[in-house]
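Researcher: Let's run the pair from yesterday's discussion. Sequence first, then tokens, for each.
Model: Starting with the first of the pair.
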Amino acid sequence: MNIEVQEKNGRKYYYLAGNIRYGKGKWKKVRIYLGKGVIKKKQLEELANEKGKEFIKKLSEARKNTDPLIALISESHVNELDKIKKKFKKEKSKLLYPQYKNYYEHFVSLFTYNTNAIEGSTVTLRETAMILFDKIVPEGKSIKEINEVQNHKDAFDFMLNYKGDLNKPFILKAHKILTHNILWKHAGVFRDVQVYVRGAEFMPATPGNIESEFKKMMLWYRRNKKKYHAVVVAAHMHHVFESIHPFLDGNGRTGRLVLNFILRKNGFPMIDIKYADRSKYYAALGEGNKGNLKPLADLIIKYITEYEVPI
């Protein structure tokens, strides 16, 4: 911010002013009136200091009005999420290994069950835990469903141990692990055929546009991962990833891993979108296709505020 001087009819008017960018080559001027006439430099600085908080508030409001993503999360939610983040960090630091192991097995069983159930798996929560930790294969389940369970845990473990930032190689590797012995040559590579999403009105990217759309998504991430709140970044990236639908299959499970990767990297609890909430989840993604990410952000916030597992 700076002090701006305007002259009208031979008289000087002073403002505290600043610019905000709200698009490519688009700027909006924000001003707060300080006074008029002859005002000494020291007095102007004092007036600017007095109006500083008011100016920052006005600047913040202007940003929200020009950028819907900034306004996606209310100030009260931001404050609540900050408290959760601090509490989560403190709880996590106090965990003993036996507690962590217990929580880990609990969460990975739930997350694996729910994310697969959303995609149509018939493996129950109890059967999921049996496959993962007792190495017992339940009767009546296909090899594909068994592989989906084990593969998801392997991909989840890969995500937990990955030290880098979100990028294309990470996403391709996560998908390859998720679809190992299921999609074969299509595991970990972008699809070369058109796919459709059952029950959805939108059309995923054509095979010829996947690479360019994916690059746009990753460019947005690199440019905005620090600009917006982590929940906004997670919601935006998840929605865009699902709208591109870059793989032949496994897009939902990969996308939910990406969502959790962003939350975890920013110090927030990971979330497990419940199979019982699949209608709300699909509706939120549908609203995202209309340009409204608030339902998806609200759903993520809801799960974060209800977290139980500090991993």
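Model: Moving on to the second of the pair.
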Amino acid sequence: MMTEESGKPKFELPLVQLLPNLMTVAAICAGLTAIRFGMQENFELAVQLILAAIVLDGLDGRVARIMNSASDLGAELDSLADFLNFGVAPVFLLYIWALQDMRSAGWISVLVFAVCCVLRLARFNVGNKSEEDEADPRFFTGVPAPAGALLVLLPMVFSFAWFEVPQLNGGLVCLHIVLVGLLMISRIPTWSFKSVSVYRDNVKFLLVGFAFGVAAMMTYLWATLVVLDVAYLVSIIWSWRTAKTSLNKDN
């Protein structure tokens, strides 16, 4: 519907078309609230909120494409949400959790990770517009921001899974943060799971495996996340070898 007021046309927009943007805003709220609970030292709930932000980030773009409601505003909002949820909130939690006794070095590592994350997001956005980066649909260039958030939280998640294990030295946590940040801006190819396909005959096994994974997450959340983090690190090595082999064949 279009009306005329002050010479400017107005269009009615179905609220359902705003669902992807609402999901992005919800992810921002989750990331900010994770910081709040981190300041209150409720770290487990804070990490769970970052996991919720990761899920929402994975859904909002797909919902926008399904509903044909993608927009420039939504794309910019999504990038800003990604920086907050994956470049700021996770390392802020780590700083409060393990690095306050070594404030200078700890804060430097936080800044390095945050800058690496924003550079990663900027490179991805430019690549999407120019279609020159991320050319091979099987791979991302570097570790995506959501995966980087999960990887950088590995020391904290490990401590949740096995309370009897002593907390890591702050210097090692700083080194871990910096290394994950460098992985995000690296040129190392990492699997894009959006391009993974499965034979029809194997769908039943995939569904059973997915059900097992969901059950494991609901029952042993932290141990499952540790396994997923380690599996993803192994997949980086595998994807690098696969991409290198493909490049040699093409040449």
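Researcher: Give me one sentence on the second I can quote.
Model: Strands lie at 2-5, 8-11, 139-141, 189-191.
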